[in-house]
């Protein structure tokens, strides 16, 4: 599902974000990615989604060598990846419905299917009935849940989450983790970047640890 082989990333400024990273996430596996702020977690996720490209090494995702993807192939490649961003990335002038429906509209689903899937995704994250709200009318935690609904609405084979519980209280954080488990149980591979060690301790999944851009771990707790 995901393979990193000796992957390094150096930004044009000279900043070394990742150094010779090796790890693999199997099909249907769920794992945590942890490390201090600036350790390289967000950069690693950006390499998986081809927001950034590696400076050296090989990144394989869903059997694609991402270095060989042409720019016009990237949107198609991303269709099977759900991405939950730390800062939501919602369209603030669009309704909750429109935000969650966006991946389905891009893929050409019928309006009937879109309505059913959006309703199901919003119900899953506890926001059923808020379809017509604008993001500005929601709390930070609710906006985060809209972002999660958008990421899972097209049932991706791979789900990536960058600090998905950062704006949520402990109970809601566990509810969201349970949602990820449900998705994982039906075959979705899940990689969650977080620095919440308490959350990781309560969930018995493999933990990958980055320190100053190098991968240290990969073992079960």
UniProtKB/TrEMBL annotation:
Record-linked Pfam families: ABC_tran
Taxonomy, superkingdom: Bacteria
Keywords linked to the UniProt accession: ATP-binding, Cell cycle, Cell division, Cell membrane, Membrane, Nucleotide-binding
Protein's UniProt keywords contain Metal-binding: no
Keyword Signal on entry: no
Principal localisation: membrane
GO cellular component term, pick one: plasma membrane
GO molecular-function term, one example from the UniProt record: ATP binding
Bilayer topology term: Peripheral membrane protein
InterPro entries reported in the protein's UniProt record: AAA+_ATPase, ABC_transporter-like_ATP-bd, ABC_transporter-like_CS, ABC_transpr_LolD-like, Cell_div_FtsE, P-loop_NTPase
Biological process per Gene Ontology, one example term: cell division
Chain ranges passing through the membrane: none
Compartments reported by the entry: Cell inner membrane; Cell membrane
Limits of the ABC transporter domain: 2-220
Family listed: Belongs to the ABC transporter superfamily.
Known function: Part of the ABC transporter FtsEX involved in cellular division. Important for assembly or stability of the septal ring.
Subunit (UniProt): Homodimer. Forms a membrane-associated complex with FtsX.
Name of the protein in question: Cell division ATP-binding protein FtsE
């Amino acid at each position: 599902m995901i393979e990193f082989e000796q992957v390094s990333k150096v930004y044009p400024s000279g900043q070394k974000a990742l150094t010779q990273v090796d790890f693999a996430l199997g099909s249907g596996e769920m794992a945590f990615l942890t490390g201090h702020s600036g350790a390289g977690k967000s950069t690693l996720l950006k390499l998986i989604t081809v927001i950034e490209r590696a400076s050296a090494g090989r990144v394989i995702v869903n059997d694609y060598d991402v270095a060989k993807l042409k720019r016009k192939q990237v949107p198609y490649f991303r269709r099977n990846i759900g991405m939950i961003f730390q800062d939501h990335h919602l369209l603030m002038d669009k309704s909750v419905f429109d935000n969650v429906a966006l991946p389905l509209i891009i893929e050409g689903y019928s309006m009937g299917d879109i309505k059913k899937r959006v309703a199901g995704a919003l119900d899953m994250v506890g926001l059923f009935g808020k379809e017509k709200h604008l993001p500005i009318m929601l709390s930070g935690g609710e906006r985060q849940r809209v972002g999660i609904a958008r990421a899972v609405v097209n049932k991706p084979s791979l789900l990536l989450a960058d600090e998905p519980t950062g704006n949520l209280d402990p109970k809601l954080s566990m509810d969201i983790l349970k949602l990820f488990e449900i998705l994982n149980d039906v075959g979705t591979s899940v990689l969650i970047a977080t620095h919440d060690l308490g959350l990781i301790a309560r969930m018995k999944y493999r933990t990958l640890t980055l320190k100053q851009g190098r991968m240290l771990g990969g073992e079960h707790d």
